[in-house]
Amino acid sequence: NAGVTQTPKFRILKIGQSMTLQCTQDMNHNYMYWYRQDPGMGLKLIYYSVGAGITDKGEVPNGYNVSRSTTEDFPLRLELAAPSQTSVYFCASSAQGGRWNQPQHFGDGTRLSIL
Amino acid sequence: ELKVEQNPLFLSMQEGKNYTIYCNYSTTSDRLYWYRQDPGKSLESLFVLLSNGAVKQEGRLMASLDTKARLSTLHITAAVHDLSATYFCAVDEETSGSRLTFGEGTQLTVNP
Does residue A45 contact residue A61 with C-beta atoms inside 8 Å? Predict the structure, then answer.
């Protein structure tokens, strides 16, 4: 059972470049999330989705975009990379949302450096 | 805006000792989660607390929730080195549906 899979695991980008962080889950979870974790800090929510075709902003959405065309996939797009986006990015999923008693399951993270 | 505060942020303790990590939050919620993160790794779910007075225990860790005080505790009993990690609490704000707000984390080091 793979759970939540993120690719790539590491990436270095130049300022102004674009990239897409991939996230896929095989648990048929309807809720999916993207977080960023800066060094020594907790996680901050970037975007989330309650189902295919539905996305919404979290606490720190600026500079990012998402789409959710299928239940399994929730890619995160950085359009114009900036040094402030250097961080570790975690994707997570949960069944029917946290209110249904299920914790969020996290992927292994993507470590992104913008130079 | 929901705020979640953990203390202490750093905790160094000896094996065999007991200690408590505190998680305070600023708004009404009866959904609180504890996660563990090892260095360079992902987050692992430890406990899900879903009502006032909820208490969960797993091995040397016990978590509780007091929704009236807006406080959760994670108690460590007879610490062992394997418990060294960063522990996060996360609160599901009632009006947000299923969005979690995380505390900054408590970095626990258990020394022999």
Answer: no
Q: Are strands B106-111 and B10-14 parallel, antiparallel or unpaired?
A: parallel
Among chain A, residues having any CB pair with chain B shorter than 8 Å are 31, 33, 35, 40-45, 48, 50, 58-59, 90, 92, 94, 97-99, 101-109
Give me chain A's average pLDDT, please. Answer: 92
* Confidence band of A97 (pLDDT split at 50, 70, 90): low
Q: Which of B90, B20, B52 is nearest to A37 (CA)?
A: B90
Cβ-contact B60, B83 below 8 angstroms: yes
Please list every residue in chain A whose beta carbon sits closer than 8 Å to the beta carbon of residue B30: none
Average pLDDT value for chain B: 92
What's the rounded Cα separation, in Å, for the pair B68 and A104?
25
With a cut of 80, say whether residue A66 has pLDDT above it.
yes
Q: What is the pLDDT of residues B65-102, one digit of tens each?
A: 999 999 999 999 999 999 999 999 999 876 655 788 99
Q: What is the mean pLDDT of residues B2-11?
A: 94
Q: Do A90 and B97 touch (CB under 8 A)?
A: no
Closest chain B residue to A98, measured at CA? B98
Q: Do A104 and B88 touch (CB under 8 A)?
A: no
